[in-house]
From TrEMBL:
Lineage of origin: Bacteria, Pseudomonadati, Pseudomonadota, Gammaproteobacteria, Alteromonadales
InterPro entries associated with the record: FRMsr_CS, GAF, GAF-like_dom_sf, Phosphatase_reg/MetRdx
GO terms under cellular component: cytosol
Pfam families xrefs: GAF_2 (PF13185)
Family, per entry: Belongs to the free Met sulfoxide reductase family.
Protein name per UniProt: GAF domain-containing protein
Organism from which the protein derives: Cognaticolwellia beringensis
GAF domain location: 34-139
GO molecular function terms noted in the UniProt entry: L-methionine-(R)-S-oxide reductase activity
Length: 158
């Protein structure tokens, strides 16, 4: 199966899970679980929520994690402050990387927006170096867009 097909199928599954549900935390929990189950070579999948100008651990799958991440620190804090996807082939070369799990070697973090503000980030870690490529990024960006549209549909206010 090609990555395009994989992400198209994954999109359909995420859409079925979250479209009729208005609770953001419940949707984050189900999306985390589905991605953890479906993606290969990942050791952590979850959300960090923006709370009082810092990222706070949200629903996730994997080992215990850092609870709070300051904006601008680590891959997640950088994604949030820059409002830009961070796709890191080797986290050990990322200046300021926060090692919540020392076995993680690569990471992708995608900002989740509402009303032009970052309200959370989706963080996916892998023990493999260079695990995430442009196709992964495109597929995951579509999932984030779907999530944002569902929040808008349900009138979620941040």
């Amino acid at each position: 199966m090609t990555k395009n097909t994989f992400y198209r199928d994954l999109y359909t599954q995420v859409e079925a899970l979250i479209t009729d549900e208005s609770d953001v935390i419940a949707n984050m929990a189900n999306v985390s679980a589905l991605l953890f189950e479906q993606l290969t070579e990942v050791n952590w999948v979850g959300f960090y929520r923006m709370v009082n100008d810092e990222l706070v651990l949200g629903p996730f799958q994997g080992k215990v994690a850092c609870i709070r991440i300051p904006l601008g620190r680590g891959v997640c804090g950088t994604a949030a402050i820059e409002n830009k996807v961070q796709r890191i082939a080797d986290v050990h070369e990322f200046d300021g990387h926060i090692a919540c799990d020392a076995s993680t070697n690569s990471e992708i973090v995608l900002p989740l927006m509402l009303n032009d503000k970052v309200i959370a980030v989706l963080d996916i870690d892998s023990m493999a170096f260079n695990r995430f490529d442009a196709d992964d990024q495109i597929g995951l960006e579509k999932l984030i867009c779907l999530f944002e549209n569902v929040m808008i549909k349900h009138g979620v206010i941040n």
